Amino acid sequence: MKSMQSIVTKCLETTTSKMYGQPNIAVIGGGVVGITVAKLFQDQLKNAKVTVLAEQFTEDTTSHIAAGIFKPGTSFKGPTKEITKKWVNDSWHYWQDMLKTPDAEQIGIMPLGTYIFSKENYHVTRNYLIEDLMPIYRPVTDEELKLAPVGTKFGSYFLTLKAECGRYLPWMEKIIVQRGGELVKRKVENFASLSNYDLVFNCAGLGAKYLCDDHDLVPIRGQVIKVKAPWVKSSFYGDTDTYIIPGLNGVVTLGGCRGYASYNLNNCKYDAASIMERCSEFIPSLKDAEVIAHKVGLRPHRSPVRVEAELIDGVKVVHCYGHGGDGVATAPGTAIDAVEKGLNFLRSNTRNKL
Ligand SMILES: Cc1cc2nc3c(=O)[nH]c(=O)nc-3n(C[C@H](O)[C@H](O)[C@H](O)COP(=O)(O)OP(=O)(O)OC[C@H]3O[C@@H](n4cnc5c(N)ncnc54)[C@H](O)[C@@H]3O)c2cc1C
Fold first, then answer.
1. Cα Rg of the chain, angstroms
2. Structure confidence by residue, pLDDT tens digits, 146-156
3. Ligand 1 centroid distance, CA of 118 (Å)
4. Could you write out the three-class secondary structure of 259-326?
5. Residue 282 predicted with pLDDT over 90
6. Which residues line ligand 1 (CB under 6 A)?
7. Ligand 1 centroid to 258 CA: how many Å?
8. Which segments of the chain does DSSP mark as H helices, in order?
């Protein structure tokens, strides 16, 4: 029996294709948000022609630098508490569903046991956004407390997952193209230049700052070291933004730092030294691990994250940007919301912001 969702989608598809023939959709952005939106839109409207326009794809995006752990910060924020929670929940279920497929490893998804420790602050070991979602989220035992540096008083352990964009993005891009979509390397200067599209998704990450003249969008600089350390099996978080996140092929991401409103994309040797020193306090053998790369990225921070429809210069635009340090984790939930707004916008004759 067909589900109600598929009947509704079918009806919508028929109505929309009657209105537009083949709707012409542009997605600005080839990072985790844009690529997820493009694929989910194709899922919903199979006859749409989806074109992803991006200055950079795959390994040149911020998304590619991220370890991709599912651990949204407690300050991650949508327009309301309910919407924030829905985005987080939908994202978790999206990644969980992928984790359960035989292709999970190829898509870059893996389960991950994670510790958060603190010397001073109990509250940083709690996370109201995810505690009810995870199959395990508990205080650490006295024995586990010994895994952290001397003086550590508080800790939690939880079972989460991570999504590596190095695999996820090419996997999704391939599906988009197989379905007739296109990936075009191009900088979009303004929305008016996209007037030939029926609908545009703005998933430009930090690039949205210039496209929308959005002063609420601020870079938060991050730096990480990627090392080969296959013996690390769990993630560790400590005070002063310290983290150790193992991934596929024995590659471990060591971090980190947060430079508010910094546009500096150069590797800083002082940050690197500090990261290595702090991570080695947890696992001393990391000092001898082979360094594969130093990476720097600018997190596109906005509070709240913007998922909104707007008519700009006669072009129907749905924004989906500003995910800060949580964009890999939360891309799916916000993408589901953006796609729904896009489908409604496509059908409507609206001349104002929805
Ligand atoms: C060091 C570091 C570690 C991180 N770790 C994690 C983590 O573990 N978990 C997590 O969930 N998140 C993490 N993040 C955050 C995550 O990387 C971001 O939230 C996420 O990548 C944002 O995705 P995005 O698609 O919005 O942006 P991006 O990946 O930056 O993609 C933006 C896209 O838009 C394109 N673009 C921009 N302007 C234009 C234009 N005018 N015309 C055409 N194309 C344009 C770009 O070329 C690019 O393709 C981390 C970030 C950093 C820096």
1. 21
2. 999 999 999 99
3. 28
4. EECCCCCCCCHHHHHHHHHHHHHHCHHHHHCEEEEEEEEEEEEEEEEEEEEEEECCEEEEEEEEEHHH
5. yes
6. 28-34, 53-56, 61-63, 65-69, 187-188, 203-207, 211, 222, 224, 255-256, 297, 299-300, 321, 323-329
7. 15
8. 4-20, 32-44, 62-65, 81-99, 104-107, 142-145, 165-178, 208-211, 269-282, 327-347
Q: Is the pLDDT of residue 1 over 90?
A: no
Q: Which two tokens stand for residue 310?
A: 């707007």
Is 353 inside a domain boundary?
A: no
- Which whole number is the average pLDDT over 335-345? 98
What residues make up the domain containing 329? 4-347
Task: Say which amino acid occupies 234.
Answer: S
Cα separation, 169 vs 166, in Å, equals 6
Ligand 1 centre to CA of 14 (Å) is 34
Identify which of 62, 191, 221, 251 to mutate to test ligand 1's pocket (most ligand atoms within 8 A of the CB).
62
Domain count, the chain: 1
Instruction: Look at residue 354 and tell me if it is in a domain.
Output: no
148 within domain boundaries: yes
Q: What is the CATH number of the domain that holds 299?
A: 3.30.9.10
Residue 21 binned pLDDT confidence (cut-offs 50, 70, 90) = confident
CA of residue 85 to ligand 1 center, whole Å: 21
| Residue whose C-alpha is closest to residue 135's, from 158, 114, 112 | 158
Say if 135 falls within a structural domain: yes
Assess whether pLDDT exceeds 60 at residue 5.
no
